[in-house]
């Protein structure tokens, strides 16, 4: 019997490697730099790793790399947060439609495109230069299953056909200073996500801000979704997974992660990531101040959010 899945993935990986092969010969250091809006976008090469950097245009200061690419293994999800985001597959192991806000270097969209042949991956990013850099330097190949629109992510979601539901919605949009646009953490935004999500679908949010705002964001999400699972990472950011599907016990999450891990032969341990998932009751440092935390709404940005 012909292994169509294996053949497709082998040829896809070969095409990606061919597209980025020229980068192996590039010297270490900054190999691309361009101002775009308020930001300076740069690509830096360190040995066999590419970094996409988004810095403040005036100070050239950045706290985070937006994307990393392993030139020897381009499907490798280097960031722990991007691996944690794949836990959405525990709730939707055969997604047909995925929507991602924030494209960056495209590592997460490419992962879904490679492993899930029946999935359509729609993405948005507000910066055309970032998307062009992803195409030129990070081996992204667009087709009828992997698409990107240069548009505000919330606006695009609102304009989607409400009868065509997403199985997974990923919110991975941040600035070089490390905070999320406020309009992507409010109750109204999560209510919009809920209307665009399939019945057992999952919303995954990369919360990379101060801990008090991460906890408030989770409190906000809980006003819309029945279940919220949290993965606090050593890197300082947190991943929240929200769904209206029935609650899953820890052993169920583990077993589902194990099945996905084995079936796709992933290059990282989804099982290990699943062991880090917690419900709110398991986070005493958040629970103790829970009642005093705000619920984010469109009407007012809380003091200190943009500091």
Q: Would you tell me the overall average pLDDT? A: 91
How does the helix and strand content classify structurally? alpha/beta
| Principal-axis shape | globular
The whole-angstrom Rg is 19 Å
Helical content band? 25-40%
Span between termini: 59 Å
Largest sheet: 7 strands, mixed
> What's the helix count?
10
User: Can you list the strand order of the major beta sheet?
Assistant: 7-6-5-8-9-11-10
Element-level helix/strand string? HEEEEHEHEHEHEHEHEEHHH
Number of strands: 11
- State which percent range the strand residues make up: 15-25%
User: What are the low-pLDDT stretches, counting only 5+ consecutive residues below 50?
Assistant: none
Task: Describe the structure in your own words.
The chain is α/β, with parallel strands linked by helices and 307 residues long. 31% of the residues lie in helices and 24% in strands. The protein contains 10 helices and 11 strands. It has helices at residues 4-20, 80-85, 107-115, 128-137, 153-159, 187-195, 211-222, 250-264, 270-274, 284-287; strands at residues 29-36, 39-46, 49-56, 65-70, 97-101, 120-125, 146-150, 166-171, 197-207, 227-232, 238-243. A 7-stranded mixed beta sheet has the order 7-6-5-8-9-11-10, with helices on both faces. The longest helix has 17 residues, at 4-20. It is globular and about 55 Å long. The mean pLDDT is 91.
């Amino acid at each position: 019997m012909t292994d169509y899945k294996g053949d497709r993935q082998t040829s896809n990986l070969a095409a990606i490697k061919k597209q980025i092969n020229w980068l192996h010969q590039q010297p270490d250091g900054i190999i691309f730099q361009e101002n775009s809006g308020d930001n300076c976008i740069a690509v830096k090469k360190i040995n066999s790793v590419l970094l996409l950097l988004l810095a403040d245009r005036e100070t050239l200061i950045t706290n985070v790399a937006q994307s990393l690419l392993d030139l020897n293994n381009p499907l490798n999800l280097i960031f722990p947060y991007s691996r944690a985001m794949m836990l959405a597959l525990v709730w939707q192991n055969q997604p047909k439609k995925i929507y991602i806000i924030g494209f960056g270097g495209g590592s997460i969209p490419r992962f879904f495109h490679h492993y899930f042949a029946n999935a359509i991956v729609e993405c948005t990013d507000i910066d055309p230069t970032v998307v062009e850099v992803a195409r030129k330097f990070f081996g992204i190949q667009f087709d009828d299953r992997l698409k990107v629109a240069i548009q505000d992510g919330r606006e695009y979601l609102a304009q989607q056909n409400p009868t065509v539901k997403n199985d997974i919605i990923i919110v991975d949009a941040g600035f070089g200073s490390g905070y999320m646009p406020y309009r992507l953490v409010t109750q109204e935004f999560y209510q919009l996500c809920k209307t665009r999500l399939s019945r057992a679908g999952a919303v995954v949010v990369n919360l990379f801000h101060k801990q008090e705002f991460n906890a408030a964001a989770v409190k906000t999400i809980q006003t819309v979704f029945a279940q919220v699972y949290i993965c606090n990472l050593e890197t300082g950011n947190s991943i929240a997974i929200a769904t209206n599907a029935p609650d899953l016990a820890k052993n169920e999450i583990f077993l589902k992660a194990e099945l996905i891990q084995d079936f796709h032969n992933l290059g990282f341990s989804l099982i290990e990531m699943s062991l880090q998932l917690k419900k709110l009751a398991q986070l005493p440092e958040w629970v103790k101040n829970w009642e005093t935390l705000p619920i984010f709404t469109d009407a007012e940005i809380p003091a200190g959010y943009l500091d």
